[in-house]
UniProtKB/TrEMBL annotation:
Pfam families: DUF463. This is YcjX family protein. It comes from Albidovulum marisflavi. InterPro entries: YcjX-like.
């Protein structure tokens, strides 16, 4: 460790100690990471969590609320001056305004600080005054976590794995055709590289729309200020035996390594390595609707994401994390309001089974984990209808397309998820026993009572698992 690193470490420790001794029983600050792949509902989750902690009438599952110990909640400026603020007010207006609609999805890292004034409980109640708990909520795309796997691969291995994965996908036809005109050993040409990278980017967008989860590198879909830069102008290539310096292969490999060193590593160093608690949101229903291949793809993607939560992982990540670890991780199957409540337990079991092998292999170094079915914003109501002489449990909501009201029976999830997961792992094209419908619902028009946040499903229980011990 250099002198500069040593001084920085001492300064950080002193600041943390000073922060912990501020106020009656002190101030505790926790960094809560919120991530998930595209369409999992990160923006809605954060907006709803904050709205329901500011107006706590629907948060009885959070014990500190049930006991009346949260005295006040208020937003503060986020502590990181170079990180954009999560646009809570705009997102809340989108969800609860006169013409409610889903807000813009996560495209980069953002942050929000919510502070709670909390009265002590139990034996501590008579020993001192209230405490402050700062919750620094960090929003970042799950696709960026998938990049973790790149750190252990060179360009050749990454190319082989991608080419194997996409060979049978219709969405990759345009890219595979463009590859036919490429000689990896030929001299590098920038115009050709931009064209090929554009074809690969188009494939990634089409694959994501088709329900696939392994759409990376992550910044290709969410480039931000890096759009058009060399670190985002590369693509996987067929294996070549000889690739001299200055060739297409050589330059693509160089840019791939630059992506890892200048994009992936700084993200983990500056953001991920500082997370204390984590929510991983998973669109299980969307994957089931897309079919067995999408479910198996989601399983593999979640396994890759879980690799980021292994503080014992050897190599560069262990060096970034040091002795720090994520203390609690919640895996949440979102959009539970698309199912009748009688199926929520099955959705939770499916999520737990989907992640089982990854969780068994991951060394969480003592971290607490949980799986849960939630709806951060409830957009439907439940109904029962007779069909073919049988009563079926449905959900009714306002359709995103056209705005009309409609009732949906999405199909019943199996009591045990084993058979479905076996079909997915075995490469089945379609589900053998059933089809699963999914509709895109718009947010419901709301009329909220004073003190109530917007309706949800188990958001209070999610908050209890994530931060309840701090309150």
């Amino acid at each position: 460790m250099s002198i500069g690193d040593f001084v920085d470490d001492l300064t950080a420790r002193a600041e943390a100690l000073g922060q912990g001794l501020t106020g009656g029983f002190g101030t505790r600050t926790v960094r809560l990471g919120v991530t998930g792949l595209s369409r999992a509902g990160k923006t809605v989750f954060i907006t709803q969590l904050v709205a329901n902690l500011l107006e706590r009438g629907r948060m009885s599952g959070l014990r500190a609320v049930a006991e009346g110990r949260i005295l006040a909640a208020f937003l503060q400026p986020q502590p990181d001056d170079t990180v954009p603020r999560f646009d809570y007010e705009t997102h809340l207006a989108a969800l609860t305004g006169p013409d409610p609609h889903w807000p813009e999805s996560t495209r980069a890292v953002s942050e929000l600080r919510l502070s709670l004034r909390v009265a002590p409980s139990g034996l501590l109640a008579g020993l001192g005054g209230e405490r402050r708990v700062n919750i620094d909520i960090v929003d970042y795309p799950g696709e960026w976590l998938l990049d973790l796997g790149l750190m252990d691969m060179d360009f050749g291995r990454w190319s082989r794995e991608v080419m194997t994965r996409i060979a049978a996908r219709a969405e990759a036809a345009g890219y595979l055709k463009a590859l036919q005109a490429i000689d990896p050993a030929a001299p590098f040409d920038e115009v050709q590289a931009k064209s090929l990278s554009g074809h690969y980017d188009s494939y990634l967008k089409a694959a994501r729309a088709a329900g696939y989860s392994d759409c990376g590198p992550g910044r290709f879909l969410l480039p931000g200020e890096l759009e058009g830069s060399p670190v985002l102008t590369f693509a996987p290539l067929p294996r070549t035996e000889a690739a001299p310096r200055g060739s297409v292969w050589h330059e693509m490999a160089r840019r791939y390594e630059a992506y890892k060193s200048k994009v992936v590593r700084p993200f983990f160093r500056d953001h991920f390595a500082r997370i204390d608690r984590q929510v991983v949101l998973v669109d299980v229903l969307g994957a089931i609707h897309s079919g067995p291949r999408a479910v198996e793809d989601l399983r593999g993607a979640m396994e890759a994401v879980l690799g980021a939560f292994r503080p014992g992982r050897p190599g560069w990540l262990a060096g970034l994390l040091g002795g720090r670890r994520v203390e609690r991780i919640l895996f949440a199957a979102t959009k539970a309001d698309h199912l009748h409540h009688s199926q929520h337990a099955r959705l939770t079991r499916f999520l737990a089974a989907l992640l089982r092998s990854a969780r068994d292999r991951a060394d969480f170094a003592g971290a607490d984990t949980a799986a849960m079915a939630i709806a951060a914003l409830r957009a439907t109501v439940e109904e029962s209808h007779e069909r073919g002489g049988e009563v079926v449990d449905c959900v009714r909501g306002r359709l995103l397309a056209g705005g009309r009201e409609a009732a949906l029976f999405p199909g019943e999830l199996p009591e045990s998820p084993a058979a479905m997961l076996a079909e997915a792992h075995g490469g089945a094209e379609h589900w053998l026993d059933a089809d699963y419908a999914v509709m895109a619902f718009a947010p419901a028009r709301l009329s909220l009572r004073p003190g109530d946040g917007p309706p949800h499903i188990r958001l209070d229980r999610a908050a209890e698992f994530l931060i309840g011990d701090l309150l």
